[in-house]
From TrEMBL:
Positions annotated to bind NADP(+): G164, R165, S166
Name by which UniProt lists this protein: Bifunctional protein FolD
EC number: 1.5.1.5, 3.5.4.9
UniProt xrefs under Gene3D superfamilies: Leucine Dehydrogenase, chain A, domain 1 (3.40.50.10860), NAD(P)-binding Rossmann-like Domain (3.40.50.720)
Family: Belongs to the tetrahydrofolate dehydrogenase/cyclohydrolase family.
Tetrahydrofolate dehydrogenase/cyclohydrolase catalytic domain segment(s): 4-119
Annotated ranges, domain Tetrahydrofolate dehydrogenase/cyclohydrolase NAD(P)-binding: 138-290
GO biological process terms held by the UniProt record: L-histidine biosynthetic process; methionine biosynthetic process; purine nucleotide biosynthetic process; tetrahydrofolate interconversion
Species this protein is from: Mucilaginibacter gotjawali
Summary of the function given for this chain in its UniProt record: Catalyzes the oxidation of 5,10-methylenetetrahydrofolate to 5,10-methenyltetrahydrofolate and then the hydrolysis of 5,10-methenyltetrahydrofolate to 10-formyltetrahydrofolate.
Gene: folD
Functional pathway: One-carbon metabolism; tetrahydrofolate interconversion
SUPFAM superfamilies (UniProt xref): Aminoacid dehydrogenase-like, N-terminal domain, NAD(P)-binding Rossmann-fold domains
């Protein structure tokens, strides 16, 4: 078994991104600029946004945080997005999900100018991605493709099973793996909560990508020898054993499954770090007007 090492790949790509950001600064006098909007005080969201901001600064981007209490109205939030859309100094806008129940995430996603939608959630970007046109690709699937490339994982003709069909991970991941490009050209099966006997499908997977949010859901008896495993799950549990007070678990039982896998991502240290890279690369591409000239 070999590790798909998110720490190694993300550090390497960050050096490349920082060099590009320095070129933009030298050429234009400005840094790529990402704005994050955070509503409420969800512990996970606070951590993710802080990490995104920190990584932006580390590669020489400018980052700004717009904060609202959980009772902000949908109208006020939409007005803020419109204001950020119109601000020429901003290259990328992300609104951290989940949002409070009284705010429709679809409305907010569609309000973001697709040319600044560096999360790649806007229907225009998703549609363009499906057509293999230049687009912002959702950060987690994008990061996974970069990792597969880095380790030259063969994908053509393979059976890729994606467990989970969320708008941000499972669904775009399944589209990417089926596209006629590298990584891609897989035969893709998408499993979800209504799939009876998931094991029947996972046992046949050459590449297994799991994004469901259920700790250690995939066990060794559910995979075949030599499978490539991408574990997207980030299940936080409180723990007295760590400094942060919580411990992260994947959706895959690493202990057991790594005995059979040819390649596997650890949690932490795998996909989570690559997600940040996807976001940084999209922001850089926006600043360089690479996707929408
Ligand atoms: P989500 O929106 O909650 O979607 C979960 C998906 O899993 C749904 O499609 C659901 O099916 C399916 N599912 C749930 N229980 C299942 C079961 N028992 N069997 C089969 N399918 C099941 O989740 P998400 O946002 O994609 O996130 C998934 C996990 O990835 C979470 O742990 C999240 O924290 C993590 N995540 C990590 C990163 C990262 O950077 N590493 C980024 C994003 C998310 P239905 O559609 O039928 O309900």
């Amino acid at each position: 078994m070999e590790l798909l090492d998110g720490k190694y790949v993300s550090e390497k790509v960050k050096v490349e991104i920082a060099a590009e950001a320095a070129k933009i600064l030298a050429r234009t006098g400005r840094k790529p600029h990402l704005v994050a909007v955070l509503v409420g005080h969800d512990g996970g969201s606070e951590t993710y946004v802080a990490s995104k901001m920190k990584n932006c600064e580390a590669v020489g981007f400018k980052s700004s945080l717009v904060r609202y209490e959980g009772d902000v109205s949908e109208e006020e939030l939409l007005n803020k997005v419109a204001e950020l859309n119109a601000d020429a100094d901003i290259d990328g806008i992300i609104v951290q999900l989940p949002l409070p129940k009284h705010i429709d995430p679809e409305k907010v996603t569609e309000k973001i100018d697709h040319r600044k939608d560096v999360d790649g959630f806007h229907p225009i970007n998703l549609g363009r991605m499906q057509r293999n046109l230049p687009s912002f690709i959702p950060a987690t699937p994008y990061g996974i493709t970069l990792m597969l490339k880095e380790y030259n994982i063969e994908t053509s003709g393979k059976h890729c099973v994606v467990v989970g069909r969320s708008n941000i991970v499972g669904s775009p991941m399944s589209i990417l793996m089926a596209r006629n490009t590298y990584p891609g050209n897989c035969t893709v099966t998408v499993c979800h909560s209504r799939t009876p006997d998931i094991k029947k499908f996972t046992l046949d997977a050459d590449i297994l990508i799991v994004a469901i949010g259920k700790k250690n859901f995939i066990t060794a008896d559910m995979v075949k020898e030599g499978v490539v495993v991408i574990d997207v799950g980030m299940n936080r549990e409180t723990s007295t054993l760590t400094k942060s007070g919580f411990k992260l678990f994947g959706d895959v039982d690493f202990e057991g499954v790594s005995q059979k896998a040819s390649w596997i991502t650890p949690v932490p240290g795998g996909v989570g770090l690559m997600t940040i890279i996807g976001l940084l690369k999209n922001t850089l591409a926006s600043a360089n007007k690479q996707v929408y000239p």
